[in-house]
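Next comes this protein:
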Amino acid sequence: MSLKAWIRSFGLSLLLASGSACAAQPAGSLPKLKLDPSRVAVAGLSSGAYMATQAQLAYPELFPNAALVAGGPFGCAGGKLEAALGSCMKGVPAPDVGALVASATKRAAAGEIGPLKDLAHAHVYLLHGSADAVVAPAVAEAGAHFYEKLRDNTPGLSGMQVHDDGQRAFAHNLPVVASGDDCDKSVAPYLGHCGFDAAGEIFAQMFGKPAHAAAQARGELRMFDQDALRPDGADALLAKTGYVYLPPDCLAGKPCGLVVAFHGCKQNADAVGEAFVKDAGFNRWADVYDVAVLYPQTRASFAPLNPQACWDWWGYSGADYDSRQGVQLRWLVNAVRALGLPAGH
């Protein structure tokens, strides 16, 4: 498939202009927090949703909870770009959920991904818009069916909670609480002003009802050096700098949860500045729940071919991209360990 055909398939123009939109300031190390391993979740939009399900299935002992916005089932692409663009975005042909569950079960038994028993108490929230023209609603529904079938077919997983939230009318974006005229569009920075607080619902699904309403974020948004966390020195094809949001109580040394928030394609800081890391709504709720938010950042590249700075959910970083040996997933483990996730988990 040609590059032009790929871009057309995504329905988005190629915008690689400019370089970083971030402030030129030195990025430090991640702080060591007192993390509660039972209050850890991964969340993401689009390619970030695929990355979140890969993180949860590869390392369920670290990431027991997942919120997926406009993403499909684990293993959907099978390492093939053509499948990613067709079955896993347009839903043509429809993802074979039964085969994907069987594959995940086999891979877990072989140790390629984590033990499925560690999903016994998982919370999985799947949000997608009925007006999404980039990732078809049927693909996101297949993502929900994957978890439901995995739960129903795997001994010991009857307690897994799967919530499919697919009846809201929005396009391919992350809804934010403000209202506006872009809810039915998929335009940068892909934060749709839909009058629905997706971040607040994600926190409630992951960690229960909030103790009080969210106000303006009062913690610290810091930049950190992502290259310092390369697994065994390997290039994880990420940006040099990432972000982490630290609520006041986490900074004060109190026990703290963690959400890893994966941006979508063309939603990285080089493309949209700090819009996602500041305006998606996570930081406000992070204060309410005492949960730090890690915002890892990808980078665009032509070799390997990833011009829209997507997370790797089809294999551009290597054949083991969605396994425990995937370079981006190993980078992620280094990052959460650096933040203080206990070594026994």
Remarks:
- The longest strand covers residues 35-45.
- The chain has eleven helices and ten strands.
- The CA atoms of residues 266 and 308 lie 5 Å apart.
